[in-house]
């Protein structure tokens, strides 16, 4: 008998690949990329809106001193220099081609900034004197009595506040001012600005001027053209250091 052929060829079956190929999804990455681009777009637009500021065009009549807003048909006139805005906005509201005008604001008791309607009043920049321009049909400027001041700030000529009067001290000052006789004196010596503040018109200061001449103290209200000599009881309201520094106290 012949020998059996033991060299049989064994057919090896290819091993089945059990590792599944996963498809890579680009959808989440596209969403993330879209969100990033959206944030960038919002930032760019917010910067553009913040930096873009529309300045209205007004006309100024030098013959009458009137400022005219043609679009809203408002005629502004200049308030006497004794009326001052407490705060003005950072960006101009309008221009007449030479000067810029700003909205007027103030801080509430809670510290929140409020802006009054520009249809009532606006103001020039401090570099142009910070003059108030107001619509006389919308605002009646008060005299010192109707202003009803509740506080007085004693300021130097650099607008630094040196002292403040509370409501009681302010009342004493105003009573003396209203009852005093108009006097004549030569404006000399040390001069300070008295800024009267009121909750009735919280965006405005009513200003007077204090003169220390030797031992005497005089007050001038340029708005009402009144000059008085302060009585001794009111002089005592002022800080002694202030009197020693600027007078002969």
Question: Can you describe this structure?
Answer:
The protein has helices at residues 27-51, 144-147, 167-179, 232-235, 240-246, and strands spanning 56-57, 59-61, 66-69, 74-78, 83-85, 87-88, 94-95, 100-107, 113-115, 121-124, 132-134, 151-155, 161-165, 190-197, 204-213, 216-221, 226-229. By secondary structure, the protein is an alpha+beta fold. The strands form 2 sheets. Strands 1, 2, 3, 4, 6, 7, 8, 9, 10 and 11 form a 10-stranded mixed β-sheet that branches. Strands 5, 12, 13, 14, 15, 16 and 17 form a 7-stranded antiparallel β-sheet that branches. A hairpin with a 2-residue loop joins β15 (204-213) and β16. The chain is elongated, with a radius of gyration of 37 Å. The model is unreliable at 48-52 (pLDDT under 50).
């Amino acid at each position: 008998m012949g020998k059996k052929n033991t060299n049989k060829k064994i057919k090896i079956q290819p091993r089945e690949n059990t590792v599944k190929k996963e498809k890579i999804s680009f959808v989440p990455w596209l969403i993330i990329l879209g969100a990033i681009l959206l944030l960038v777009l919002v930032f760019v637009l917010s910067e553009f809106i913040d930096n873009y500021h529309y300045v209205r065009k007004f006309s100024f009549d030098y013959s009458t001193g009137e400022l005219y807003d043609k679009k809203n048909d408002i005629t502004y006139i200049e308030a006497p220099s004794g009326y001052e805005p407490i705060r003005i906005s950072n960006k101009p509201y309008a221009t007449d081609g030479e000067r810029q005008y700003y909205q007027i604001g103030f801080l509430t008791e809670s510290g929140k900034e409020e802006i009054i309607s520009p249809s009532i009043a606006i103001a020039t920049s401090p570099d142009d004197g910070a003059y108030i321009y107001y619509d006389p049909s919308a605002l009646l400027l008060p005299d010192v009595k109707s202003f009803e001041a509740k506080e007085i700030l004693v300021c130097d000529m650099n607008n630094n506040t040196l002292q403040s009067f509370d409501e009681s001290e302010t009342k004493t000052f105003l009573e003396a001012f209203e009852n005093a006789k108009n006097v004549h004196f030569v404006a000399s010596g040390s001069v300070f600005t008295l800024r009267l503040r009121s909750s009735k018109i919280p965006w405005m200061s009513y200003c007077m001027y204090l003169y220390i001449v030797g031992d005497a103290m005089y007050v001038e209200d340029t708005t009402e053209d009144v000059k008085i000599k302060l009585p001794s009881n009111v002089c005592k309201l002022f800080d002694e250091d202030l009197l020693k520094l600027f007078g002969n106290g």
